[in-house]
Design brief:
mainly alpha, 2 strands, 17 helices
């Protein structure tokens, strides 16, 4: 069974919510080995880290001083650009290591000062939901990681027990869980004097158990991605046709909304129908002449049938 490692011991000081959740997930990814310090510095260079701490000179000085040996008073006088350059030189010359730099960058500060979408992209770059049992080490690590994401999402109130169960569906659980696990659910329901809820269900089959039986890619696609990543803006939502910018419109005299401008088919050609060419446009003078002709023309001889 997948079990949360010691990385789960980190609890963010940002309070419950999406910021704390993100800080905890990033730290778990690093401590569990799902992501490495080298991966982190590939996404966020020394200069980028120091630039993100532009308004925190004391924090920059602490990291530079402990990484490079520069006196903290000197490091405090350095700009964010100079701090980043010094840190990169120290890394290039093996004066410090990626692990030391990333370790000095406080977990909550990673979440506070780095761009949210970029940090989430780092968190999930390894695509743990695609891990297969063929690589047992990576698969076990991926199960622990996705279980932890679910645990912390529930704990930080980003998603409800009802949403998790409805996302997975009872039908999928019945298909995926072995008989002994289904028996535990039935037993737990019989022992409950009140209504057996989704919270009771996930207490009987917690995330650590879910990742053992429900496919990881299914959990990702049905629960984590839509209900956590996209719903709370860690990952940008996919662009849909309904989200496209509508054409400029104006109201007609009849009150209907008409599109303005020239519309085209997907192949770039104008739509079929009654279109007016340039040689068919009637000028103002022609309209006036036509009106004068009508005014002076004799009336038509009409006869009753």
């Amino acid at each position: 069974m997948a079990e949360s490692s010691g990385a789960a011991k980190f609890v963010s000081g940002l309070g419950k919510g999406r910021e704390a959740f993100h800080a905890e997930v990033t730290e778990f990814a690093l401590r569990s080995g799902e992501r490495t310090p080298e991966d982190f510095l590939r996404h966020f260079s020394c200069r980028a880290i120091m630039k993100s701490l532009d308004a925190r000179p004391m924090e920059r000085a602490r990291i530079v001083s402990q990484s490079t040996g520069v006196h903290e008073k000197v490091a405090h006088k350095m700009s964010s650009d100079a701090s980043g350059e010094s840190l990169q030189i120290a890394l290039d010359e093996s004066v410090t290591t990626s692990a030391a730099i990333v370790g000095l960058f406080q977990p909550d500060d990673k979440q506070r000062y780095l761009e949210r979408h970029a940090l989430w992209a780092f968190d999930v770059e390894g695509q743990p939901w695609k891990a297969t049992p063929a690589n047992k080490t990576a698969h076990d690590r991926a199960k622990s990681y996705l279980a932890y994401i679910l645990e912390r999402a529930l704990e930080n109130l980003l998603v409800s027990h009802e949403e998790v169960v409805h996302g997975i569906t009872v039908s999928k659980l019945a298909q995926s869980l072995p008989k002994e696990k289904l028996g535990l659910i039935i037993e737990a329901s019989l022992k409950t004097s009140d209504k057996f809820t989704e919270e009771d269900l996930l207490e009987a089959i917690p995330p650590q158990s879910l990742v053992e039986y429900v496919p990881l890619d299914y959990l990702w696609e049905k629960v984590i991605l839509p209900l956590v990543a996209e719903a709370h803006d860690y990952a940008p939502k996919p662009v849909t046709l309904t989200g496209a910018k509508p054409a400029d419109t104006k109201p007609s005299e009849s009150g209907e909304w008409l599109a303005t401008g020239t519309s085209k088919r997907g192949d770039g050609t104008p739509p079929s129908g009654n279109t007016v060419g340039e040689d068919e446009i009637v000028s103002e003078d022609e309209i006036l002449d036509s009106d004068d002709d009508l005014a002076t023309a004799p009336p038509k001889d009409t006869k009753k049938a």
